[in-house]
Amino acid sequence: MSFAKDSKMQIIEEEIEDANSAQAFISGLLHAAGTITKNSDGLRIDVVTDFKEVFSYLNKLVEKLYGQELSLEISDDYIINKTTYYRIKFPISISMSVLKDCGLLSQDEVFNLDGQIDSNIVADDESKKFFIKGAYVGCATSSIKLSELGSQLPTTGYHVEFASHHNLFLEGLEGLLEHFNITSRIAKRKKIFVLYLKDSEAIKDLLALVGANGSVMDLADEMAKRGLRNTVNRQVNCITANINKTVEASLKQIGAINYINKKIGLESLPEDLQEVAVLRLANPQESMEELLKLSTIKLTKSGLNHRFRRILKIADFLKEK
């Protein structure tokens, strides 16, 4: 199961007892995933979703509020990119009442077609929270992939988004999130608008707000794993860089020593330089620290470096001649 679907499952595990909270949830869900059609029989509301499990949860809410049951349909037309979509149908007999109660139809039967959120539906903190829950269940997706224990495979960044054709709906949702100190952004992507969160802490706050506490823990664990992996990678890169520097310096020193030996012989060098030249030729792969440990000469690292610099200068001088 994906990270987004798993978090949605946690949301619908919580029963809604308060009628206003239930109404706010349904309103958020309809804004996010609802469709309205009109035929000779009247208005019909549907919720189109790939999250089938929401059907029984929504059905309980509607039955409690309106005394009617929903129906579930699936057809070949709703299989897109190997994802199956379901149509949850509201009875026509209650559709008008549901639309009015959710702020999508005014009392004088004027439709709210631009997606603007009715302030009466989200009048207090509790109703705001349940509206966000409904919107999350309706259209939230995520690219977050949890690492397996010890996995070294690359992982994606942190990303949760709400997609809609109605910019006013997302602007209203952005304001509701801001009310709870959760920062989000809106962008246009082809013909739709997207409200997105990329900050891991903001995503954790959103998951906690909608009641997906298990996903909060999973995300915190994932952040810790990635942090540890990044630290290890930095250390490995640092060690690799140091090894490369050691090898490069050693090759340069050995090249200079061999050149001097070929041209004038090592015995022509001052005694102190002969000692470090022989030491390097005998230990071509060792770092400066290791050479100091192997040396019988009492030298500091700075002193050893100084002697090698003199050897390099002598080799350069011979090359110029």
Could you write a compact summary of the structure shown?
By secondary structure, the chain is α+β, with helices and mostly antiparallel strands. It has helices spanning 3-11, 19-33, 54-66, 92-101, 125-139, 167-179, 200-209, 213-263, 271-282, 288-294, 301-320, and strands at 34-39, 42-49, 71-73, 79-80, 83-84, 86-89, 140-142, 160-164, 185-189, 192-197.
Tell me the strand percentage band. 5-15%
C-alpha termini separation? 73 Å
Major β-sheet annotation: 4 strands, antiparallel
Overall tally of domains: 2
What is the overall shape? rod-shaped
The fold-level CATH name of the largest domain is: Endonuclease I-creI
- Reading off the top of the CATH hierarchy, the class of the largest domain is best stated as Alpha Beta
Portion in helices: 40-55%
